[in-house]
Design goal:
Helix content: over 70%
Largest sheet: none
Structural class: mainly alpha
Shape: flat
Distance between the termini: 43 Å
Radius of gyration: 16 Å
Number of strands: 0
Oligomer: single chain
Number of helices: 3
Order of helices and strands: HHH
């Protein structure tokens, strides 16, 4: 399992907090994301080990394509 991901996320939050100020954070959004990352990291690690690499690559590629098409549609709509 990937043990370091929650710590990397925490370091990112602390860095942004130090740079822009913790009072500007929308804690009702940030805190659930941190908790969700800590809780779901072991499951995500297990799932990626069990999923065939090619299927995982295709799924990620499709997801990124869908998100970018959606973003472009919002820009040009």
């Amino acid at each position: 399992m990937e043990f370091t991901e929650p710590f990397v996320s925490l370091a990112g939050v602390l860095t942004f907090g130090a740079l822009i100020g913790f009072e500007t954070f929308l804690w009702n959004i940030v805190l659930p994301m941190i908790i969700g990352g800590v809780v779901l990291t072991p499951f995500a690690s297990w799932l990626t080990k069990k999923t065939p690499k090619r299927a995982l690559g295709v799924a990620i590629g499709l997801w990124l394509t869908v998100l970018n098409v959606y973003g472009l549609a919002n820009v040009f709509a």
